[in-house]
């Protein structure tokens, strides 16, 4: 068994042959500890991917994803940078909360899309700022010019040229699926279902 490396404490057995859930601690406590370790491992592996969420960037860069090109920071020599813009059908469905649907609970849906595709996703345009008064005050400031155009999603990818289209299309498919209005009770998208499961834990 030593050849297998160290196992999670949840998977180890005592010298008497009892599994951890037979010890004096309750199974719920052990499960909670295991899930905490699992979450830490997921976060560690996610950080190795090299993607960062939209909340981890400089506010000015957050205001305009194109600023990296204008600031002189070049693209990796082995890669290229592409953008896709997807318009949000606010005129067709004026009462549907597209921003909430894209963000998901605590912003986790958007983070999940970014982490699974390696692309950056930005919600831009009128209605992308939660507070309407704040949006009006920001509208004419540098970096917030996007608030003068209709609501849209901007997907940014920086990959080697042989895989960039694959990653962008994958992100586009997920975003377009999230932009299809459905009744909340009939929402079975895998990302939405995953977020609901995470909320219950």
UniProtKB/TrEMBL annotation:
Keyword Endoplasmic reticulum: no
Any single GO CC term annotated in Swiss-Prot or TrEMBL for this entry: nucleus
Residue intervals of the K Homology domain: 82-180
GO molecular function, one term: mRNA binding
InterPro entries membership: BBP-like, KH_1_KHDC4/BBP-like, KH_dom, KH_dom_type_1_sf
Family annotation (Gene3D superfamilies): K Homology domain, type 1
Record-level GO BP terms: regulation of mRNA splicing, via spliceosome
Entry-linked Pfam families: KH-I_KHDC4-BBP (PF22675)
Keywords: RNA-binding
Keyword RNA-binding appears in the UniProt entry: yes
SMART domains: KH
Name of the molecule in the record: K Homology domain-containing protein
Organism of derivation: Ceratopteris richardii (Triangle waterfern)
């Amino acid at each position: 068994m030593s050849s297998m490396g160290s196992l999670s404490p949840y998977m180890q057995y005592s010298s008497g042959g009892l599994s951890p859930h037979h010890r004096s601690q309750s199974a719920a406590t052990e499960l909670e500890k295991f899930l905490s370790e699992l979450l830490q491992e997921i976060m560690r592996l996610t950080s190795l991917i090299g993607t960062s969420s939209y909340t981890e960037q400089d506010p000015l860069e957050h205001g305009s994803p194109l600023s990296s090109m204008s600031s002189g920071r070049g693209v990796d020599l082995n890669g290229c940078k592409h953008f896709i813009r997807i318009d949000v059908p606010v005129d067709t469905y004026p009462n549907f909360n597209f921003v909430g649907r894209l963000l998901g609970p605590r912003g986790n849906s958007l983070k999940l899309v970014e982490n699974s595709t390696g692309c950056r996703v930005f919600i831009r345009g009128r209605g992308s700022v939660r507070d309407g008064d704040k949006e009006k005050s920001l509208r004419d400031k540098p970096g917030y010019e996007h608030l003068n155009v209709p609501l849209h999603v901007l997907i940014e990818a920086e990959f080697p040229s042989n895989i960039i289209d694959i990653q962008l299309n994958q992100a586009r498919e997920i975003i377009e699926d999230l932009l299809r209005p459905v009744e909340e009770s009939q929402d079975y998208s895998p990302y939405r279902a995953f977020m609901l499961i995470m909320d219950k834990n």
